[in-house]
Amino acid sequence: MNDPAIPAVQFSEVSRHFGDVRAVDGVSVEILDGEFFTMLGPSGSGKTTCLRLIAGFERPTAGRILLHGKEVTNLPPYERDVNTVFQDYALFPHMTVGDNIAYALMIKKVPKTVRARRVEEMLELVRLSGLAGRRPAQLSGGQRQRVALARALINQPRVLLLDEPLGALDLKLRQQMQIELKAIQQRVGITFIYVTHDQEEALTMSDRMAVFNLGKIEQIGSPSQIYEHPATPFVAGFVGVSNLINGPAAEAITGSPATFSIRPEKIHIIARGAGVPEGMHAVKGQIRDVIYLGLYTRYLVEIEGGLDLVVVEQNLKTTSADLLTARGKPVCLYWNREHVRRVMEA
Amino acid sequence: MSILDTKPVSVSKSSSYPALAPSSSQRVSTYIYQRPWLIMILLLGLPLFWMIVIYLGSLATLLLNSFYYLDSFTGLIVRQFTLRTYANLMTRANLDIVLRTAGMASAVTLSTAMLAFPLAYYMARYASKRIKGFLYLAVLLPLWSSYLVRVYAWKLILAKEGILSWFILQTHLDWLLNALLSAPGIGGPSLSVSAIGIYIVFVYVWLPYMILPIEAALERVPKSLLEASGDLGARPGQTFRRIVLPLAFPGVVAGSIFTFSLTLGDFIVPSALGNSSFFIGQAVLSHQGTSGNLPLAAAFTVVPMAIMVLYLIGAKKLGAFDAL
Amino acid sequence: MHYKGSGNGASPLGLKAAAAAVLFFLHGPVWIILLYAFTTDEATFSFPPPGLTIKWFGIASQRNDFWEALALSLRVAATATTTAMALGTLAAAAVYRSRFFGREAISFLLILPLALPGIVTGIALRSAISLANIPFSLWTIVVGHATFCVVVVYNNVLARFRRMGSSQIEASMDLGANVFQTFRHIVLPHLATALLAGGMLAFALSFDEVIVTTFTSGQQSTLPIWIFTQLTRPRDRPVTNVVALYVIGITFIPILLAHRLTMEREETA
C-alpha cells in the first residue's frame, strides 16, 4: 500500500510570501515515509509556515507540494490525508473528550458503535482511558495535549503534523511526553513531522531534521550529522553551543585562517604547564568565568587573540568548592584535530 | 508503567476509513475555499447591499429632496435643483424652531452631565466588582427598556393633579412652581405642558447615555494619579478639579454627542409635553405629513445632521472618541 | 488619604447619597405607572389615587385596537430581528475573516442608523419609499427596523468570533470537515448564545421603537405608536397605563436574558 520509495512529503521550490515578507523562500525538501522528521528553527524562520503549507491552511505563492506522490498544492485541508496537532491543542470546548476524538469519524458518517470502539482504542493509546465523558476545560494541559493527539490519530492519517505541541508543558512532563510521542510514532508507524524551536528536543526525537533560518533550510540531516558537522555558522550556533574561531586566532592554532568550530565538550582543560598530548590542537588561555551546573561545569576561557571559548566538562572529580578558586587561573586548552569542523561562512 | 508496556494497538498502515467520495456540498465548499475573494463577496454582499443601497441611498434621496421645493399652488414637489427651500428655512418662524431646539439640547446636555457625574464617579472609583456589575445593569435597563413608556411615566408624574403637584403642595412650595410656570418662554399651564416639563423628561431619558461614557473615562484614570496628586499636597477638592475633571472630559464630550443628537431630532417628548411652539422634530413630522412638504421637512432634517457633523468634528479634536 | 472598607477607600457620604439619588431618579418614575394601573380615576392622573381596582386589566384585554397593535409589533420585531441576525452574522463573519481596510468603515456604516437621530433615518426612508412608489406596509416598517438592529447583533457576534480563535476552525477542516460542516458543528454552537443575546436586544429595540416607525408605516399602528396616540386622549388613560405595564414586562425580559447570556459566557471563557 505504501511504496517506501515515494516520499511522504515533497516540497518543490515552495515559497510563501506575505507582501514583502518571505516567510518561506524557495524551500525544497523530501520527507521519507515513516520517519520522525523535525523542522527546527527560531521564531519567524518559516518552519511553522511550512507545516501549515503541508496541512493546507496556507497556499504557497510558488512551488508545488506533493503528498505520497499526489499533488495537493491547491487542495483544502479536508481533502488531504494529513492531520495536525495544534500548539494550543484547539480542542472543541463545547464537546466532550470522546466527541472531540471521534469528530473526524463523525464527519465521515462512521456508525456510532464503531466510533465508540475506536475512541476507546485511542484513549488507551494515549493513556487517558475512562476520560471520554469529560470536557476539555476539566483536563490538565498534559491531558489536553494527549486528547489532541488522539483526535488527530483516529483518522489514521499517513502523515501527522505536530506544531510545537509540548511548548506549554513543564520540563519533566515535556521530557516524558517526548519519549511517549516517539514510542507512539514507532508503534503506529506513520510519518511524524514535528516543529520546534527547542534544539534539544529535536536532537532527542528526530530520525532526521531540517534547520530553518529566515525562510530557508540551512541544513538537513540526522541529529548527529547536524550536531557534529554543522554546515553553516547559523546551524553551528543554533544547534548546541559552538565555538567559532576564525582569522589570525585560527591560523595560530591550525595553521590556516579558515573558520572552524569546535564543540565545548570536545575541549580538554588543564593547568598551564601540564603536558599536552601529541598531535592535538592547543591554545593558552585564562579562565574568565565558571558556572557550576550539577552534572557539569561550564567554563568561559579567554584565549590568546582575545576570543572567548566555552568549555564544558563533566564533574567527575571536581566539586563546587574547587571551582570557586578557578576564576583567573591560567590554563591550556587542547582538542583532537578530528573534532574540528570547517564551517562555510554565510 | 511506560507506554512500551501497553498491549499493541491494531493500527493498520493503510487507512480503513477512506474519505467518502466528495458530495456536491463538498465540491461547492472546495470551490469557495480556493477563492477567498468569493467568500468575502458571499459574506459581505447582502449586508453591504442593504446598508449602501437601502440606507445610504435613502439618505441621499433625503438630501436630494432638500434641494427640491413644493409648489404651493399645485401641491406637488418640483424636482428641480433650487435653494429656495433652504431660504424658507431661514425665515423668522423657522429659525425660532431651530434655535429653540438647539437651546434645549444644550441645556439638557449640561444638566445630564452634572447629574451623571456623581453616579459615574461612584461606579468608577468606589464600587466593588459586584456592585459595579449591578449598577451597570441598573443603568442599562432603562436604556434598553421602553422609551415611550418612560416618557409616559413623566406625563403621569408632572400632571397638574399628579404626584409631583401633590408633593409640592405638601411641602408648601407651590409659590415656586407658579413662579416657574409663569416665566415667559419656558412656562405653561402645567408642568406637563411646558418647556420645563420637556426639559425634565429629556434629562431623564438621556441620562444613561451620559453616565456610561463618563464612567468609562473615569475608569481609565489610574488610581496612582490621584494618589500622586494627594501626595504632592493637593486637597481632594483640588485633585478633583485639576486631575479628575479634565481626564473625565472626553467622556463628557462622548456622552454629549448622544444627548445633543437625540434631543435635536426628537419629536415625541415635545409632542407629549409641549404646546404649539415646535421643535425641529415636530416641524419635520408636520411638514412631511398633511402638507406633503417633503422638501421642507428634508431641509429641517439636514439641520441636526449638519450640527452633529460639526459637533463630531469638534469632539474628535477634543479627544472624545478615545472614551468610546 | 485613609483607606478602609472595600480597599478602594471609603466613599464620602455625600457622593453615595448623590449617586443613590440619581439611581432613584432613573428608576423611580416607572414604578409610578404600576401604581396608576390600579387607579379608579378615569380621566385624570390625580394623586393620591381615589381608589384601587383591577378592572382596567380586563378592559384593556378587550380592546381590539390594542391587540392588533400588539400583534403588529410582535410580527415586526420578530421579522426585523431575524433579518438583523442574518445580516449581522454575515457582516461579522466577513469582518472577522479578513484584516482588510474596510473593517472600520463597515462598523461605522452599521452604527450610523443608531448614531444619527431617528428622525433622519425615518424621513430618509420615507422619502426613498415614496420616491420608489412603494406602498407603506408591514414590510416598510420591517426594513426600517432591521436597518438599525443589525449593528446590535453584529457587535455581539463579532465579539464572540474574536474570542473563538482561528485554530478551532482549522482543526475542524484538518479533521475532514468542509466549510459548511465546520460552520454547523463548530462555529454555530460557539456563536449560539451571542446570536441569541444580540437577537433579544434587537427584539427589544424594535419592539420599543417609535420614531422611525412613525415615518415608515402607513395606516398601521405598532404598540408604541398606539401608546403615542393615546398620550393625548383623556378617556383612554387607565387603559394606557395597563398597556404601558405590559410593554415594560415584554421588553424587560429579553434584556435581562440577553444580559445573563453574555455574562455567563464571559465567566466560563
State the CATH superfamily name of chain B. Answer: MetI-like
Strand order of the largest sheet of chain B: 1-2
What would you give as the CATH superfamily of chain C? MetI-like
Following the backbone from N to C, one meets helices and strands of chain C in this order, namely: HHHHHHHHHHH
Q: What structural class should be given to the helix and strand makeup of chain C?
A: mainly alpha
- Please tally the β strands of chain B and state the result: 2
Architecture (CATH level 2) name of chain C: Orthogonal Bundle
Q: What is the approximate shape of chain C?
A: globular
Give me the Rg of chain B, rounded.
Answer: 29 Å
**What is the count of helical runs of chain B?**
14
Instruction: Report strand % of chain C.
Output: under 5%
| Cα distance spanning the termini of chain C | 37 Å
Verbal overview:
The complex is a heterotrimer of chains A (346), B (324) and C (269). Chain A is α+β, with helices and mostly antiparallel strands and 346 residues long. Chain A has two domains: 9-231, Rossmann fold (3-Layer(aba) Sandwich); 243-342, OB fold (Dihydrolipoamide Acetyltransferase, E2P). Chain A is 28% helix and 31% strand. Chain A contains ten helices and 18 strands. Chain A has helices spanning 47-55, 97-107, 112-125, 141-153, 171-188, 199-205, 223-228, 233-238, 247-254, 320-324; strands at residues 9-18, 21-31, 36-40, 62-67, 70-71, 82-85, 159-163, 191-196, 208-213, 216-221, 243-245, 260-262, 268-271, 281-292, 296-303, 308-314, 330-335, 341-342. Chain A has a six-stranded mixed sheet, sandwiched between helices. A five-stranded antiparallel sheet of chain A has the order 13-17-14-15-16. The two termini of chain A are 43 Å apart. The model of chain A has no long low-confidence stretch (mean pLDDT 89). Chain B has 324 residues and is mostly helical. Chain B has a single domain (91-322), classed as Orthogonal Bundle (MetI-like fold), CATH 1.10.3720. Chain B is built from 14 helices and two strands. Chain B has helices at residues 24-33, 36-66, 84-89, 92-126, 129-144, 147-158, 163-170, 174-182, 195-219, 223-231, 236-265, 268-273, 280-288, 294-317, and strands at 69-70, 77-78. In chain B, strands 1-2 form a two-stranded antiparallel ribbon. In chain B, β1 (69-70) and β2 form a beta hairpin. Residues 1-15 of chain B have low confidence and may be disordered. By secondary structure, chain C is mainly alpha-helical. Chain C has a single domain (56-268), classed as MetI-like (MetI-like fold), CATH 1.10.3720. Chain C contains eleven helices and no strands. In chain C, α4 (102-115) packs across α6, α6 (138-164) packs across α8 and α7 crosses α8. The longest helix of chain C is centred in the first third of the chain and has 34 residues, at 64-97. Chain C is globular. The model of chain C is unreliable at 1-8 (pLDDT under 50). At the B-C interface, α1, α2, α4, α5 and α6 of B face α1, α3, α4, α5 and α6 of C.
